[in-house]
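Sequence in, structure out.
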Amino acid sequence: MMKRSGISAEFQKKTFGNFKTRSNPQLSNAKSKAMKYVENFVQMEHERYNSIMFYGQVGAGKTHLGTAICGELMNGGVAVIYMAYRNAVTKIKQNIIDEEVYNRELNQYTSARVLYIDDLLKGRLTETDVNIMYEIVNYRYMNNMPIIISTEKSLNDLLIFDEAIGSRLIEMCRRNIIQLQGKELNYRLSQEVMEGWQG
């Protein structure tokens, strides 16, 4: 199940156990929400508000928490598909004129029991991005299929990208929208890392 998920061996090492909150209340809250999401997943899986979103500060551990959720769900027998947004959308675009391949690529994301979209809307965005994401998000919205999201974009950015997509994602995640804000959350710029770099 882990192999089929598309989550790399390096990312599989990201667990709740090794997520460092650094005594920061935002990080502690994000970890707590993520763990609670896993705990309540089975009861809410087929409800409208069955998804979770981490958004905001670069380097705050959004991908770590999303991956930790995936690992826990798969340990409980729940299949997850990982979608690295930029790479996945580029690959789908490359096959847009081959209907069979295009549908096959798209189908793995629409039909997954749980879909994890990492770095949603990363990079330069086009009308094709809107069309692809609408197909994926709308299908999952209409069928109450859970999505885990990490993104640097704000909720307003999602709505500006496309109101239909953004509003669906916000509605699906409404019980579990976690904002991480502030450069102090960027572990890549933490004192420990910077001291190592300067040394």
